[in-house]
Specification:
This protein is α+β, with helices and mostly antiparallel strands and about 500 residues long. The chain is built from twelve helices and four strands; from the N terminus they run H-H-H-H-H-E-E-H-H-H-H-E-E-H-H-H. Its main location: membrane.
């Protein structure tokens, strides 16, 4: 309580007739919080994203409403992914644990808030006694007491405890959002990787079919004395290597399927995801401005709430410097018969005031206050580091998305050229114009180009997922009083109107 507030209360007390009661004194002193006023820690916020200027072909001009609703996975337009994401929300055990932690934090808030109110207790007893020798009659004794105990929150310690518990509960809510974002992000990454594995397997199936035909042609030419045996061996090696790569892809696909089963909360033996057509959609994602990240990233929100909780702990520690007040009242009655308990002549009442003040503790309270201050400073540093890490993650994914978009166009051209080269050399070999070694080299290059293109496409999808996670997935901190409706639209976020989904 500051000096001006204390002087004001002293003037009030001086004008009261007689000696004020303990209750009046407690009421006047109520609200004298000794903790520091909370201020959100400052963080260096850039005016815009550095890499957004070079992210052509990445951000669209049209808004992405699904991101604002938090159902960001719907941006990819895959019904199977939507279904799996819904299952993750319900059955993932990491999310279930986060939900339980949030419920526990809310219960702690209710427990701390209950300490602000009086405690009312009712005690009753009945007893019958007499002499063992039987020389006197047995007697009954009954009693009932209604008691009230209250520790007024004079210095704001209890309110600071409630504030700390509320901040921890809000941080737990953000942790829950982080768990959901992480689980669905892992699901999307694994799902797209599995679909890419399906695409590569289908590609290898077509390639193996072609290699099988080439092996048969070469074998026929060898038996006719047109080709050398080395051509047959090379064709066989090419075929068997492709078959071995297909087995490896099947193993990779099975591992991804197991990971998805774990994320949806079922045993791998009870989960199966059939092969399906893969559409490598890469949605445009509105990034907004850096300041919106402070409400849209759950880890930043949780770090900020940790600072608020640490700030409240300083006030709790400081309150130990001041005396503790306690008020008690009781009404009781005792009688030899139950019906006489309610007679006024048998009723007793009592009022009490208690005050406890630490006189000497060898600096223990001061050490506790210093410890709380140091913890607050550490939480501020962690908050600022979390903000910086978030900015880095967004910039990294903007760079990755722009680079991968450019690479995909180049790899697509390279794959088309490699396909033409393979077909031309195969025709020339059939006309006995080139050796089979040139054919094998062209086939290997064509297959590698096709697979590289597929891998780039899935990398673009996973980079989009990573960018959405870096942006917070559309979640926002409701307690911050901000909504995503105030965030810039995708048209404002996009550096170039002509950019779009590729």
């Amino acid at each position: 309580m500051n000096e001006a507030a204390m002087t004001h209360r002293q003037r009030i007390l001086s004008h009261l007739p007689g000696r004020p009661s303990a209750l009046v004194l407690a009421a006047l002193l109520a609200g004298c919080a000794v903790g520091p006023a909370y201020q959100v820690p400052s963080a260096a916020l850039p005016a815009g994203w550095k890499e957004q200027k070079t992210a052509e072909g990445w951000l669209p001009a049209a808004p992405a409403d699904a991101l604002d609703r938090g159902e960001w996975w719907k941006l990819f337009g895959d019904a199977t992914l939507d279904e799996l994401a819904a299952r993750v929300q319900v059955s993932n055990q990491n999310i279930a644990a986060a939900v339980a932690n949030y419920a526990q934090a809310q219960a702690l808030v209710r427990g701390e808030r209950a300490a602000l109110f009086p405690t009312v207790s009712l005690d009753g007893s009945g007893r019958r006694s007499g002499n063992i020798g039987g020389t006197s009659n047995a007697a009954n004794a009954f009693s009932a007491t209604l008691g009230v105990d209250w520790a007024p929150d004079v210095w704001g310690r209890l309110r600071q405890a409630v504030s700390s518990a509320q901040a921890n509960a809000q941080a737990s809510e953000a942790d829950l959002a982080s768990a959901r974002l992480s689980a669905v992000g892992d699901l999307a990454t694994n799902y797209f990787s599995l679909r890419e594995a399906d695409a590569e397997i289908a590609l290898l199936d077509q390639t193996i079919e072609g290699y099988q035909r080439a092996f048969e042609i070469t074998s026929n030419r060898y038996r006719a004395g047109i080709a050398a045996q080395t051509d047959v061996l090379q064709a066989q090696t090419q075929l068997v290597n492709a078959q071995a790569e297909r087995v490896g892809l099947q193993r990779t696909r099975a591992t991804l399927e197991h990971a998805i089963a774990m994320l949806v909360g079922v045993a791998p033996a009870d989960f199966s995801l059939p092969a399906a057509q893969w559409t490598p959609t890469v949605p445009g994602i509105p990034t907004g401005v850096p300041s919106t990240l402070l409400q849209r990233r759950p880890d930043i929100a949780a770090a900020e709430r940790a600072v608020a909780a640490a700030n409240a702990q300083i006030g709790i520690a400081r309150s130990a410097y001041f005396p503790n007040f306690g008020l008690s009242a009781s009404v009781g009655s005792s009688a030899s018969r139950v019906k006489d308990l309610f007679n006024a002549s048998n009723t007793l009442w009592a009022l009490g005031l208690s005050v406890a003040q630490v006189v000497f503790d060898a600096g223990a309270i001061g050490a506790t206050v210093d410890s709380a201050k140091a913890a607050h400073e550490a939480s501020v540093a962690r908050y600022r580091q979390t903000v910086l890490t978030a900015f880095q993650a967004v910039e990294d994914q903007l760079t990755a998305g722009a680079a991968l978009a450019q690479q995909e166009g180049l790899r697509r051209e390279a794959s088309a050229a490699a396909d033409k080269t393979e077909q031309q050399l195969l025709n020339r070999y059939r006309a006995a114009q080139v050796s089979y070694t040139e054919v094998v080299t062209a086939q290997a290059a064509a297959l590698g180009a096709r697979r590289t293109l597929a891998q780039l496409q899935v990398n673009r999808q996973t980079a989009a997922v990573a960018l959405i996670q870096a942006l917070g997935g559309g979640w926002h901190a409701g307690w911050a009083g901000e909504t995503l409706s105030s965030a810039p639209s995708a048209a404002q976020a996009a550096p170039s109107p002509q950019s779009g989904v590729k």
